[in-house]
Structures are given as structure tokens and as C-alpha cells.
Amino acid sequence: MQLVILGSDGVINALPDEGSTSPLEWRPIRGSLEAIARLHRAGWRIIVASNQPELAANTLTPEELVRQHDSMRRHAVESGGVIDAIFYCPHAPDSGCGCHLPATGLLEDIAARQHIELTGLPVIGDSLAYVQAATAAGARPLLVKTGRGFGTVSQPELDPSVPVFNDLYSATDYLLHPPNPAMEN
Ligand SMILES: [Zn+2]
User: Fold this and answer.
1) How many angstroms does the Cα of residue 130 sit away from the middle of ligand 1?
2) Run of H or E including 36
């Protein structure tokens, strides 16, 4: 069985402040739920990982986060997919915790709890934090241009070898139908 780690805000759902009248309204990015359903049907396990510094800043309550996660899981199921687990860092960026992306603690926690190796594991995110955490952990970063991704692609710190996709749907296409190396000969 294969496993993929996905960001949530900006990868699966629109960023909470993107023109929403209700900051708690959960809105999928176009094609993201279909992408999760395709991965699920192809036998992949899907794990969501994110920083949630709003908890430490008290601009988001644990109950509100639970509701957001419930919405995400329900939307995934209604679209024919399954989100197997959700992991997040609840700490402030300057807390010095080991789990705030780009630190690798969250990815290592996922690996330990899911009994998998991080080496080569695809991690799909919209920010440098995901790319850097995945790279440092020996995983395989993929960047999407949704959410913060459109700005991330032009950051000089971005390793140019990281593949960039318009959205989760096209990144999923790439995972399910990887280019055949033999074709390059
Ligand atoms: Zn943390």
C-alpha cells in the first residue's frame, strides 16, 4: 500500500481568509476532493499534516479545528475518498517545538504511527515549510500552486528540482501515472 501526506489549508481547502464571509466555512479547492477519491480508489492511504499556529495564538479554538477537520473528512467521504488520519502542530512558530513544519517532527510522528518509512514518500504542500520538511526527512516534496503556492514558486529558496503542479488534482495525476523513465532514453 502506498501513502501520501497532504497539506490541508491551501492544498485541499481554500485558505480560511480567502474571501470567505465566515472564517470557519470549509471550502474545497476545485478538484481536490476528486483527487483524494482517485488516490483512495487506487489503494493509497491519505494523511493530512499541517501547522495550526492559530491555536497557540488563540485565534482558533480546538473545537473549531475539530469542526474544520470533520468537514474535510465528511466532504472527502461524500466524494468517494477517505482521509485516514490528520496530524497537526498546535504550537507557535517560535515555540521551538520539533513538529512545526519545516521541522521534521510531524512527519516523523506520522511515519512512526503509520509504521512506514519517510524515504521517497510524497509530501504535497503549498509552502516552503512542506518542501523543506520533506527534503530534510528524506521524503519527496511536491509543490502545488494553490493557496500560498503561487507565491512559493517564485521564492529563491525553492529548490528548482521540486516538481510544481497547478493543484492537487494534477499532482495526483503525476503520482498515479508517473512518467516512464524508459521513455527518456
Ligand atoms: Zn509543534
Assistant:
1) 14
2) helix 32-41
Q: Yes or no: say if 99 and 91 are a contact pair by the CB < 8 Å rule.
A: yes
- DSSP state letters, 91-129: S-TTS--S-STTSSHHHHHHHHHHT---TT-EEEESSHH
- Report the C-alpha gap between 101 and 107 in whole angstroms: 9
Could you tell me the distance, in angstroms and rounded to a whole number, from the CA of residue 133 to the centre of ligand 1?
A: 13
- Distance of CA 107 from the midpoint of ligand 1 (Å): 11
Q: How close is the Cα of 102 to the center of ligand 1, in Å?
A: 10
Q: Report the separation in Å between the CA atom of 79 and the middle of ligand 1, taken as the mean of its atom positions.
A: 31
Evaluate if pTM is beyond 0.90: yes
**Which of helix, strand or coil describes residue 42?**
coil
Distance of CA 95 from the midpoint of ligand 1 (Å): 7
Contact 37, 81 (CB under 8 A): yes
Q: Is the preceding omega at residue 102 within 30 degrees of 0, hence cis? A: yes
Output the nine-digit C-alpha cell for 174.
503525476
Per-residue pLDDT tens digits for 82-137: 999 999 999 999 999 999 999 999 999 999 999 999 999 999 999 999 999 999 99
Please tell me the distance between residue 99's alpha carbon and the centre of ligand 1 in angstroms.
Answer: 4
How many whole angstroms from 100 Cα to the centroid of ligand 1?
Answer: 4
Report the alpha-carbon distance of residue 43 to residue 108 in Å, rounded. Answer: 22
